[in-house]
Write a structure and sequence with these properties.
The structure is a single chain. About 45% of the residues lie in helices and about 15% in strands. The chain is an alpha/beta fold and about 260 residues long.
């Protein structure tokens, strides 16, 4: 029985670990040929090799989403070596937890780094892959956050909240503009997901985790695999009339 993403080529940023790695593996199980993009070249290739050992099709490329010229080069390489990308997942991102009123140098560096990766990076990669996505009536899935709507009441960087508000706004703007080409653009809003990105925080600050869990009706943190189903739905024909939307995968966090 063919998978939901048969005959698609899917590029996933931040695919070496966490949510990106899980989505890449899930897409491969549904028949897509997957291109794993990450600044950690070795880890991305290890993830691609796992997919290939499981019978899927995968390749990997080093990509720093901050460097616009590199995004263009990688998009060209993928087109020449793999084929026309029809699904793009913008997942690469970072977070830090310095408050705005803290050390000025840390606050400024947080702002510059987080905005450049979480927001400018989404622009850079999407713009680089725009031609094949438009030609093939592609699908774009952006990883937003509960912080696309709220600033979570824990130690948190305002830059992260700002960047994720921006990702949702970018999603809606592109959906409005690219719909005439048949390109669908949607987002996923994860809550607290247990990934390497927040591993140290979860170990060192259990009270922070408790704040999240106490506010989450399902009573648990999410796993990267919890994001795979929504990502498959938004990339497949199951969501053929869905664009400009965000699917929340937050255990009900925003319900209360």
């Amino acid at each position: 029985m063919p998978g939901l993403l048969e005959n698609h080529i899917a590029a996933v940023t931040g695919a070496a670990s966490g949510i990106g790695r899980a989505i890449a593996a899930g897409y491969a199980r549904e028949g897509a040929q997957v291109v794993l993009l990450d600044i950690d070249e070795q880890a991305a290739e290890q993830a691609a090799e796992e997919i290939r050992r499981s019978g899927g099709r995968a390749s990997s490329y080093r990509l720093d989403v901050v460097r616009r010229e590199d995004c263009v080069k990688v998009a060209t390489l993928v087109r020449e070596q793999v084929g026309q990308v029809s699904i793009l997942v913008n997942n690469a991102g970072i977070n830090r937890r310095n408050g705005f009123a803290g050390d000025a140098s840390a606050v400024i560096k947080d702002w510059e780094d987080i905005i450049s990766i979480n927001l400018n990076g989404v622009f850079n990669v999407t713009h680089a892959f725009l031609e094949p996505l438009r030609a093939g009536k592609g699908r774009i899935v952006n990883i937003a956050s509960i912080q696309s709507f709220v600033h979570v009441r824990t130690p948190n960087s305002p830059a992260y909240t700002t960047s994720k508000h921006g990702v949702l706004g970018f999603t809606r703007a592109l959906a409005a503009e690219l719909g005439k080409y048949g390109v669908r653009v949607n987002a996923i809003g994860p809550g607290l997901i247990e990934t390497p990105l927040n591993a140290a925080v979860r170990v060192n600050d259990p009270e922070l985790v408790k704040i999240f869990i106490d506010h989450t009706p399902l009573g648990r943190a999410g796993k990267p695999e919890d994001i795979v189903g929504p990502a498959i739905f938004l990339a497949s024909d199951l969501s053929s009339y869905v664009t400009g939307s965000i699917v929340m995968a937050d255990g009900g966090y925003r319900a209360i």
